[in-house]
Amino acid sequence: MARASEVERQPAGGMTLIVMVGLAIAFLLYMAFLNVVKSGNLFSETNLVFATLIFYAGAGALYLGFGVTGNESCVKFASLATWLGLIANSGAVALRWIDAGHPPFANVYEMLLSFVWTLAVLTLIAEKKFGVKVIGTVTMPVAIVGLVLMQLLRTEVHPLAPLLQSTLLDVHVALAILAYAVCALSFALAIMFLIQDHVKTETFLALTSAGTLVIYASIAATCFEEPGGLSRAGWNPGWLMTLALVAMATPLVCYGLSRWKNNDRFLTLANRGVLVNIVLQGLTLAVLLMRAREGGSAAFGGGGLFTASLAAGPFLLTGLVGGIFISLLYLLLVWRRTDLERLLPTADQLDRITYKTICLAFPLLTLTIATGALWANQTWGSYWSWDPKETWAAITWLVYALYLHMRITVGWRGRRAAYFAIAGFVAVIFTFIGVTYLLRGLHAFK
């Protein structure tokens, strides 16, 4: 009887969403099937990557759909979609490994393929072992960003360059991928902790608005004249980017006015501004993808809606898609915070789990740097050359080292520790993607 009454309390809109997402997944898979019938090669790497994207996107939609409907069945079906995506992801990794004749670590495309696989595994482990049922609301968007980014990268299998033919390098990259995925998990857990620790929703509003504003200000104010080269070329972003930039600032201004005037009406305006921002972000992303498709590359300079020359498309795409997910996650919090808190472990449990994941991530990061130094000495005759990737790897390592130091020696717990975990993952993202496309160096391979 208790289970029956619980089912009755579930909002009916949730089942409608589940059916809609299921039909969308089935339709996309069917269309993909029709496209490959002629070739007779259904289980190719490309098709499996596409299926992975569909299932992970379905999982992300269901996790976010929980925020709209409040129906816990969305979470259960999201977990199922994650499992199905992992199966397809595993097939893609296996085929790549077989076709290339080496582990899929040779370029950014292969590393992202392995990264999203590892992140999905850790997501399912966190759901099962630690009971963080909604961890996928953060980790699945990260995986989707990775899969979307892969669509702009070269997928051809090329023979490994002589300097990359090293078992030590395989170990180095495998450790890096695992470390980054664990860091992503600690990032998600830290956000869950802040929610469960009753951080005010308007604080999340300020952080969300500031994050998207930084993303768009960086894009609008910076010109990437060539891949791997970052140079300031003046502020000439075009009218759409200008409009988006102003819109990103509006919720932050409203938040400031609400604090100054002590008037919650400005917070209502700010939340409406976030909705407008999502529309503008989607339009901006659509323009990027159309220009990339028309031009055959990720760059979209030369007039049109954007007048800045941007050749670092993969990094740009990461920022745009990431901004959309940040805004969507905030709306999930606004609409369903009580339900989220009910599905999460206690704040103390989340704090301990975050600490445990960073205790795993830190030695992995340490071993990544150590094996990289050994390989560099074998290849270039120097353990350390202050290459941008090496420098930022060291910065990331220091952030997590400071987290552990302050927790063990000073007893930092709670919010300060969570903010450090979030900052650490931001450093990881820049080390993984940003350095590759923005800074010249020995690691700037595509």
Question: What class would the helix/strand composition place it in?
Answer: mainly alpha
Strand content: under 5%
Averaged pLDDT: 77
Strand order of the largest sheet: 1-2
What's the count of strands? 2
Distance between the termini: 58 Å
Biggest sheet, in brief? 2 strands, antiparallel
Radius of gyration: 22 Å
What's a quick, concise take on this entry?
With 446 residues, the chain is an all-alpha fold. Helices cover 77% and strands 2% of the residues. It has a domain at 211-318.
How would you portray this structure in words?
With 446 residues, this protein is an all-alpha fold. The chain has a domain at 211-318. Helix content is 77%, strand content 2%. It contains 14 helices and 2 strands, in the order H-H-H-H-H-H-H-H-E-E-H-H-H-H-H-H. It has helices spanning 2-9, 12-37, 45-69, 73-100, 108-129, 136-150, 167-196, 201-221, 239-261, 265-295, 313-343, 347-380, 388-410, 414-438, and strands at 223-226, 229-231. A two-stranded antiparallel ribbon has the order 1-2. The longest helix has 34 residues, at 347-380. It is globular, with a radius of gyration of 22 Å. The N and C termini lie far apart (58 Å). Mean pLDDT is 77; it is low at 1-13, 224-237 and 293-312.
